[in-house]
């Protein structure tokens, strides 16, 4: 191994350590704030502000967890803990939890699958992937539009498509959207700019691939393709 | 109920102790693995909160020593490092449950209550709040003796409230509880929708909204 590889490896390790070390102070802050929030002798307006502080702490924690996924730490170890679970119920759960968000914009989400299907997965991580794709579809589509979540079950593959009628992504941006911290709209406030990069890393963890087809003004279609382990 | 907190970060240990005291638990704090073993052998505890990374004897070693001595006390492991690896090692070594940092108070209280119930000898499966009764073995909820039909998510939320009467839960905590802590950014609305539907079934008088904070079930 050459010096540069060594250097990179060391940087990688230091960064990983940093991500671990930050967890304890975050826990201290969060538990402290939350004890005050449930304390009914603390004035209501103070407790309301602390709720917002906890949300910021949670945001830092998301960022840390996302960076861990991007760093690809412990992937092999993690795969050992994978369980064979229903992909359909997982996606249904995500659709259900995002339903209220879609109805705020009077959008309809429909979910179509011919049959139930299972894949080896880390349930929470895979949920995060579909959360990202479907909530992006909601976010980047107009009111009253339709979002379709479609399952294609083949002999060797299972694909899940998330299709929207939203603003679409230009050809030149289609590869970049999977880069960490890349935003098509620089002024967008929501999210940390890691959503699709993390989704992609989660897909790889599951030996799956994400592909994107999109046309400006027409909408986007994200497809996650899993290998069947039969 | 007596709980031993084994955590070398003094501030975190104090925060946890403060939280547990608000819930009327008695707790003791020790700051390393050796002290933990001494204390557990000397006194009676109902549950141990055990950090993994500690000086001298780490949490996994403490747990192994306990289980080798046939001590079956309930152990909830806490850890920040190498989460997956720690989880596998901890559960292999005989931990009853595992919580990774940073955890929320809700999650901590909920796990503690469920472990205490699992380990208590006089275990009753029925929790009551006024005219509301929940049987967590039959997975059944009754209002004034009449069985209610709840979806699995509604049941899960109501169970959390019934096991933590008079505790305020924020939307963030509820959404983490339902969907895991990665997926909470945009699901606060979903929490409100679930609460609305639960109220339709159990009536308005039970779960109270605390404006800009969250929800509480009062005794």
Quick summary:
Chain A is an alpha+beta fold. In chain A, 52% of the residues lie in helices and 19% in strands.
Describe the fold and architecture.
Chain A is α+β, with helices and mostly antiparallel strands. Chain A is 52% helix and 19% strand. Chain A is built from 8 helices and 7 strands, in the order H-H-H-H-E-H-E-E-H-E-E-H-H-E-E. In chain A, the strands form 2 sheets. In chain A, strands 2-4-5-7-6 form a 5-stranded mixed β-sheet. A two-stranded antiparallel ribbon of chain A has the order 1-3. In chain A, strand 4 and strand 5 form a beta hairpin. In chain A, helix 2 packs antiparallel against helix 3 and helix 5 runs parallel beside helix 6. Chain B folds into 2 domains: 121 residues, Response regulator (Rossmann fold, 3-Layer(aba) Sandwich), CATH 3.40.50; 92 residues, Orthogonal Bundle (Arc Repressor Mutant, subunit A), CATH 1.10.10.10. Chain B has a 5-stranded parallel β-sheet, sandwiched between helices. A 4-stranded antiparallel β-sheet of chain B has the order 6-7-8-9, covered by helices on one side. A 3-stranded antiparallel β-sheet of chain B has the order 10-12-11. Chain B has 8 helices and 12 strands. In chain B, helix 2 packs parallel to helix 3, helix 6 packs across helix 8 and helix 7 crosses helix 8. In chain B, strand 1, helix 1 and strand 2 form a beta-alpha-beta unit. With 219 residues, chain B is an alpha/beta fold. Chain B starts with a strand and ends with a strand. The radius of gyration of chain B is 18 Å and the shape is elongated. The interface between A and B is large, with 51 and 50 residues.
């Amino acid at each position: 191994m050459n010096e540069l590889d060594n250097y990179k490896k060391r940087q990688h390790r230091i960064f990983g350590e940093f991500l671990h070390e930050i967890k304890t102070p975050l826990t201290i802050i969060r538990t402290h704030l939350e004890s005050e929030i449930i304390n009914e002798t603390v004035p209501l307006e103070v407790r309301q502000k602390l709720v917002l502080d906890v949300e910021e702490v949670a945001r830092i924690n998301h960022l840390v967890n996302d960076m861990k996924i991007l760093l690809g730490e412990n992937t092999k170890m993690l795969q050992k803990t994978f369980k064979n679970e229903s992909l359909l119920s997982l996606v249904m759960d995500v659709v259900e939890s995002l339903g209220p968000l879609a109805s705020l914009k009077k959008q309809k989400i429909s979910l179509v699958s011919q049959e139930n299907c299972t894949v080896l997965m880390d349930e929470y991580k895979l949920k995060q992937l579909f959360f990202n794709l479907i909530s992006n579809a909601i976010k980047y589509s107009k009111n009253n539009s339709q979002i379709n979540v479609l399952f294609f079950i083949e002999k060797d593959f299972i694909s899940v498509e998330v299709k929207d009628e939203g603003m679409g992504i230009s050809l030149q941006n289609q590869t970049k959207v999977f880069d960490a911290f890349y935003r098509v709209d620089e002024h967008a406030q929501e999210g940390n700019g890691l959503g699709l990069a993390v989704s992609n890393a989660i897909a790889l963890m599951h030996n799956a691939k994400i592909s994107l087809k999109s046309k400006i003004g027409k909408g986007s279609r994200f497809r996650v393709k899993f290998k069947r382990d039969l | 109920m007596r709980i031993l907190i084994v955590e070398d970060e003094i501030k975190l240990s104090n925060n946890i102790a403060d939280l547990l005291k608000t819930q009327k638990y008695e707790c003791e704090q020790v700051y390393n693995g050796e002290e933990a073993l001494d204390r557990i052998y000397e006194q009676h505890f109902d549950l141990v909160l055990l950090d993994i990374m500690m000086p001298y004897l780490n949490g996994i070693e403490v747990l192994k020593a306990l289980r080798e001595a046939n001590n079956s006390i309930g152990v909830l492991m806490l850890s920040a490092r190498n989460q997956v690896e720690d989880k596998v090692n901890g559960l292999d070594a005989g931990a009853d449950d595992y919580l990774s940092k940073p955890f929320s108070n809700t999650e901590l209280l909920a796990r503690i209550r469920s472990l205490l119930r699992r380990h208590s000898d006089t275990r009753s499966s029925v929790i009551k709040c006024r005219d509301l009764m929940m049987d967590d073995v039959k997975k059944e909820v009754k209002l004034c003796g009449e069985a209610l039909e709840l979806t699995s998510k509604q049941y899960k939320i109501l169970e959390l409230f019934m096991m933590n009467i008079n505790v305020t839960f924020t939307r963030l905590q509820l959404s983490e509880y339902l969907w895991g802590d990665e997926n909470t950014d945009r699901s606060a609305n979903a929490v409100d929708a679930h609460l609305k539907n639960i109220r339709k079934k159990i009536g308005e008088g039970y779960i109270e909204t605390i404006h800009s904070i969250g929800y509480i079930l009062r005794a």
